[in-house]
Amino acid sequence: MGLEATGREIVDAGAYMVLGTADADGRPWASPVWYAPEGYGEFFWVSSPEVRHSRNIAVRPEIGIVVFDSRQPISTGQAVYMTATAEQVSAADEQERGMEVFSRRSQDQGARPWTVDDVRPPKPIRLYRATVTAHSMLDKSDEGPGYDHRTEVAL
Question: What's the total number of domains in the chain?
Answer without folding.
Answer: 1
